């Protein structure tokens, strides 16, 4: 049975899903990394591909931008398609001095200014964390990579892209936050609500502090090999 946002039939989406934000990146990942990839859904420009990765069924789907968008897709995948694990494979802006453009960041947890942290349990600011088994699998894979710097720590999921608040960046960086993006908290919240698992693995595409050159749009679309390898390992852990 299709949902309002996914047209696949039951059984056409694998229990393990890799989810970049950009639908074009999803198409490219599916074609480059999945064997026998087949498109099983296309709604509002968001395609879903299913194939196998190292012999294990796996799907790839775009999430769009922002917490509301990824929350819709992740919830429908978990609730209606039997998906058990989702790894977000996206980009982030670096914040910490130890993180450089081109590095990979594994989001152990996600701070956010979004209201979802206070909506679910009255009077409580909820924390959003990654699945530990997936995190462990990602870290094991990262340790095996000798030519790709990988960092693990908190990320910040912002509801506003053009916020322009240096005090927020400074405060979060002082507390060990590695980078800023717009989806991880929504994914982690959906996983918590649905009793499922999630992880975020990000390529640093620009840096908010050190003045490094930003990746081009083409580079954002294609320079994700480390994130895909680490993310796939997390799904398979």
Describe the model.
The protein has 237 residues and is an alpha/beta fold. It has a single domain, classed as Nucleoside phosphorylase domain (Rossmann fold, 3-Layer(aba) Sandwich), CATH 3.40.50.1580. 34% of the residues lie in helices and 30% in strands. The chain is built from eight helices and ten strands. Strands 5-9-8-6-10 form a five-stranded mixed beta barrel, surrounded by four helices. A hairpin with a 2-residue loop joins strand 2 and strand 3. The radius of gyration is 17 Å and the shape is globular.
Brief rundown of the structure:
Helix content is 34%, strand content 30%.
Please outline the helices and strands.
Layout: E1 16-19, H1 23-33, E2 35-43, E3 46-53, E4 56-61, H2 67-81, E5 85-94, E6 104-112, H3 116-119, E7 128-129, H4 132-143, E8 150-157, H5 166-174, E9 179-181, H6 184-194, E10 197-207, H7 217-222, H8 225-236
Parallel strand pairs: 1-4, 1-5, 5-10, 6-8, 8-9
Antiparallel strand pairs: 2-3, 3-4, 5-9, 6-7, 6-10
Helix pairs in contact: 2-6, 4-8
